[in-house]
Amino acid sequence: MKKLFFPGAAVLLTLCAGCSSVKTEEFDPRNPSENKVRSLTTVSQTECFIAARAAAEDAMASPAYTHFLERYKKKHDGQLPLMQISRYLRNDTNDPELNMNLITDELSKALRDSGKVRITLATGRDAKGTFSEARDLKNDKNFNQATVARSGTLNAPNLSLEGAVITNIVRDGNTTVKVTSFNLKIGDIETGEEIWSYNEPLGVKKTKTTFGF
Predict the structure, then answer these.
(1) 3-class secondary-structure state, position 56
(2) By C-alpha distance, which of 52, 109, 53, 57 is closest to 83?
(3) Burial of 59: CB neighbours in 10 Å, binned 0-12, 13-18, 19+
(4) Which CA distances in Å does 8 have to 11, 12, 15, 21, 103?
(5) Backbone dihedral region of 102: left (phi > 0), alpha (psi from -120 to 50 degrees) or beta?
(6) Per-residue b or e along 99-109, where b marks 16 or more CB atoms closer than 10 Å to that residue's CB
């Protein structure tokens, strides 16, 4: 029995196989030049990193903060001010899955690494119950009491970082535009004075073609 061969069918199968192939590769999610994928429904990890670093750099280089830092160091023998990251950094976007921890963690790291401010974990967003638990070990005879933190040793913050991530979406025909704004402020806790504010928009525009791609 002879086998039938259809050249057209072979070509079609080859094309289908090519269409279904998937290429997987690694990339650096912190590098914006390698991760250019953008979504209208969420803010990517890379966008969070970029925005946080830019905000921290802007804050530490601002004239108002520079002036505050000079006055504070002069008054406190060269010591750096202590900042809390507010627990009220808000997600005011249409994306309930936006990971605010990515933004605040990167903000905290960038600010601390600037060498111009210290970050506290005792108050604000990162205040942990473990601090109180560890300090309450003075009531546990199983622990060397000389190693337990005493009352009056925690330092209160001088500065507070607060703000939100805000999204606005506009549609016009086949074009959809999303603008995500990183809105942040630093305030002097002692005086209530606003030292620095930041509103940096990140825009993404997508247009459907006549084929719907």
Answers:
(1) helix
(2) 109
(3) buried
(4) 5, 6, 11, 20, 54
(5) alpha
(6) eeebbbbbbbe
Split at pLDDT 50, 70, 90, the class of 212 is very low
| pTM (predicted TM-score) | 0.71
CA distances from 113 to 40, 51, 116, 133, 169 (A): 32, 16, 8, 28, 34
Residue 73's alpha-carbon distances to 41, 112, 128, 202, in angstroms, are: 44, 16, 28, 35
Residues 84, 44, 99, 213, Cα dihedral to 10°: 150
The mean pLDDT value for 19-42 works out to: 57
The answer to whether 127 and 156 have CB atoms below 8 angstroms apart is: no
Strand partners, 176: 171, 206
Residue type at 159? L
